[in-house]
Automatic annotation (TrEMBL):
Protein name in the entry: Cobalt/nickel transport system ATP-binding protein
Molecular function GO labels: ATP binding; ATP hydrolysis activity; ATPase-coupled transmembrane transporter activity
Alphabetical UniProt keywords: ATP-binding, Cell membrane, Membrane, Nucleotide-binding, Transport
Organismal lineage: Bacteria, Pseudomonadati, Pseudomonadota, Betaproteobacteria, Rhodocyclales
SMART domains: AAA
KW Membrane (keyword) present: yes
Organism expressing this protein natively: Azonexus fungiphilus
One Pfam assignment: ABC_tran
InterPro entries associated with the record: AAA+_ATPase (IPR003593), ABC_transporter-like_ATP-bd (IPR003439), ABC_transporter-like_CS (IPR017871), ABC_transpr_CbiO/EcfA_su (IPR015856), ECF_ABC_transporter_ATP-bd (IPR050095), P-loop_NTPase (IPR027417)
Ranges of residues in domain ABC transporter: 6-241
PROSITE patterns: ABC_TRANSPORTER_1, ABC_TRANSPORTER_2
CC per GO annotation: ATP-binding cassette (ABC) transporter complex
Sequence similarity: Belongs to the ABC transporter superfamily.
């Protein structure tokens, strides 16, 4: 069995205003797993990804990275912090938060330079070309379109070659061709992937396993993705299916739909 890369052990988190997001969250992700994280708006998917990336610290319980507790003190240790930052990449839901360099070229080069990685120019050229940004290398990141910013943020992450990639709603601004590229790229790689999405087509193509958060922050499901996608009540609890009223002739009836998966 593959080694555990990331583990949440009885993790609870509350925002500084005291509002709890979740409590008692436990799961493990093994090296090479492709996991999709599903749940309704506000369930805590982004919060979970930030905890996995060490940007937030649990209020209770422990997040383990390669069986080592992820702590504020640990992340201040230079060697560990450097190795962790190279291995664990997070694509934010709103990628503007990640972009601050004057040009696309410098933006992609920033991570590899900070981490002292070799072949910076080659990394920039490779990932810019892969993501169709090679004509934009001298542009200012803030002047790019929403989808281009998302691609740039992805290029920045991939340029440091992380073993673990957490992607927060990556398909929100990408065109279908780019989503297809992303799925192929992730499936072809040995990277461990945790992707939060409301896009069931992306989930079905990418993931082997689903973690489903309920609206109350509890983990509703941790298991193979395919049966979860057939379970309409579970999808409804995860905000991925909803009850429609239909009128056929003089007859009105209501039934569950999972949009962009079954007939929509
Ligand atoms: N910076 C913050 N301060 C206080 N509360 C926050 C903050 N960010 C998020 N929250 C709250 O934490 C809860 C979980 O938010 P989170 O963004 O993790 O949910 P999500 O599942 O990613 O939602 P969505 O599907 O809408 O992106 C929500 O109730 C939200 O209001």
């Amino acid at each position: 069995m593959a080694e555990t890369l990331l583990e949440f052990a009885d993790v609870g988190y509350a925002w500084p205003d005291g509002r709890p997001v979740f409590s008692g969250l436990s799961f493990r992700i093994a090296a090479g797993d492709k996991v999709v994280l599903l749940g309704p708006n506000g369930a805590g998917k982004s919060t979970l990804l930030r905890l996995a990336n060490g940007l937030l610290t649990p209020a209770t319980g422990t997040v383990f990275w390669e069986n080592r507790a992820l702590t504020v003190d640990g992340l201040r240790q230079r060697e560990f912090a450097r190795a962790f930052r190279q291995a664990n990449g997070l694509l934010f839901q709103h990628p503007e938060a990640m972009l601050f360099n004057p040009t696309v070229r410098e933006e992609i080069a920033y991570g590899p330079r900070q981490l002292g990685l070799g072949g910076v120019d080659e990394r920039v050229a490779h990932w810019a070309a892969e993501l169709g940004l090679d004509g934009l290398l001298d542009e200012a990141p803030f002047a790019l379109s929403g989808g281009q910013k998302q691609k740039l943020a992805l290029a920045c992450l991939l340029a440091v070659d992380p073993r673990f990639l957490a992607l927060d709603e990556p398909s929100a601004s990408l065109d279908p061709a780019s989503v297809g590229w992303l799925i192929d790229t992730l499936l072809e790689s040995t990277r461990t992937v945790l992707v939060s999405t409301h896009n069931l087509s992306l989930a079905a193509e990418l993931g082997e396993r689903a973690l489903i958060l309920g609206g109350d922050g509890r983990l509703l499901y941790d298991g193979p993705l395919a049966p979860a996608l057939q379970d309409l009540p579970l999808l409804q609890a995860a905000g991925l299916a909803h009850r429609h009223r239909h009128r056929h002739g003089g007859l009105a009836h209501a039934h569950l739909h999972a949009h962009d998966w079954e007939s929509s």
